[in-house]
Write a structure and sequence with these properties.
With 128 residues, the protein is an all-alpha fold. The chain contains five helices and no strands. It has one domain: Orthogonal Bundle (Cytochrome Bc1 Complex, Chain D, domain 2), CATH 1.10.760.10.
């Protein structure tokens, strides 16, 4: 019993210091420089309200028309935030593995702030 009590106390101490959380064992990576949680949230709204879901699916897990955005395999960049911004802006005129191209900005009229937010959301899909 004493050993169990000690473990509970130690766990509480570590949790209070932010070193251990009993509700989650995996830490979420920090957002890229210049990206905020508000951008990720706004980007999710843009993603779901634009043509993104038609090719990448409602959850970003991909379809026969577009790649999975939730894994760590990236076709057109290293999966970093700047690379995702670039891919969204420029599109993918000649896909390597999918049947149809992605037009610049997915064929939508997006502002620079919307592109940044959308890229933040897409980045978050594979960095959770």
């Amino acid at each position: 019993m004493k050993k169990q009590a000690l473990c509970v106390v130690a766990g509480c101490l570590l949790a209070s210091l932010g070193i251990f959380s009993s509700s989650s064992t995996a830490a979420t990576p920090p957002l890229p420089k210049g990206v905020t949680q508000d951008m990720v949230t706004k980007g999710g709204t843009i993603y779901k309200g634009q043509t993104c879901v038609a090719c990448h699916g409602a959850t970003g897990a991909g379809t026969p028309l577009g790649p999975d955005l939730t894994d760590d395999k990236w076709i057109w960049s290293d999966g970093g935030y700047p690379g995702i911004v670039k891919t969204i802006k420029e599109g993918v005129p000649k896909p390597k593995q999918f049947p149809s191209p992605m037009p610049p900005m997915g064929g939508a009229q997006l502002t620079a702030d919307q592109v940044s937010a959308l890229a933040a959301y897409v980045w978050s899909l594979s960095h959770h």
